[in-house]
Design goal:
Strands 1-4-3-2 form a 4-stranded antiparallel β-sheet. It is an alpha+beta fold. It folds into 2 domains: 120 residues, no CATH class; 83 residues, Uridine Diphospho-n-acetylenolpyruvylglucosamine Reductase, domain 3 (2-Layer Sandwich), CATH 3.30.465.10.
Length: 214
Amino acid sequence: MKQLIRNRVSKVATYMEILLSLFILVGVLVVSISVATDLVRDVPALWSGRKAFDFTEFLGLIMKLIIGVEFVKMISKHTAESTIEVLLFAVARKIVVMDSGYFDVGIGILAIAILFLIKKYLTTTVNPNGYILEGDTRLKELNAMAKTSLTPEDGGTVREILDKELERLGNYPLVGLTIPVKNAQFKIFSMKDGIIDAVEVINLHDKKINRRWF
């Protein structure tokens, strides 16, 4: 009963995340259109020199929009890499746009260096041909997105499919563990309370796959 309630709450939270990310994306689109409209309207005045162009302010606004887009990607992907991308842009904006002193610039550069080190050595690499799915993603959605050929006998959700396969292999779920099932390859991306939370799935029969990733 408790697990059922957890799953329902998790699903509602996921839908709320999607809805809020759509709001952010629409907001970014509206502001982008506004910026483009203002820029086109001010071109004659800027060209004639009647109006000065504040490039720092313009760059700051553009970087805010980029951070917004990266934030939406972070919400949708649920990966450490996407989180680091948001932090990188936020720190870069602080250094480039803000009127920072040498100490603040040094701290910012150090922060960027640490983020790059974390990205290189402490995060799981994402296959560009893969799909990041939550553990409770239904079988029908999995087959539709990744073009896999799994059946209800394999499990009703991504988590059930992997739990069954791990039980058959006598193994335990671990972050980074790769599990082939029929024409699909699953890599566990994250776990919560010992339960598979997010998975990267790749269609092994997809001709576009670069085999160097395996």
